[in-house]
Amino acid sequence: MSGNLTQFGEDLRPHLLRLQASLNNINGLFASCPPTDDAQCAEQLDNLRALAIESCARAGKLRETLEAGLARDAVLADETLPRWVLGRQTARLHARADSIELLAAAAMELAKLSAVQAESITMTAIVARRQAVAVQVQRDNQP
Prior knowledge:
mainly alpha
């Protein structure tokens, strides 16, 4: 990473914006698919499912990266970090900060991908509930 906190924030911003958009989309799903527009709901669901499928493999790799990086840092922090601080080994401390910034970016990307998956699952739940209600209404309206 850059060693600059402002740049670090800018690097994370696209992930934060996509995460925010996904969360807003989830909130808006309940109003954006009126019961009379099943075709639009189906199209949105197909698009979201495609995005969710694309994101699954990447999310798995990100989880592995995070787990490995956090494990490395935990060992480093317990055994080596105090020596680096006492020895004022700033190059090593900056390298550690760079590594942790990369982990933060991976975690943010994982959150973004998880939000896309949540959109897809939420839309699937809405469609499933609407189908159930439609069948119930048809059944209840039969003589």
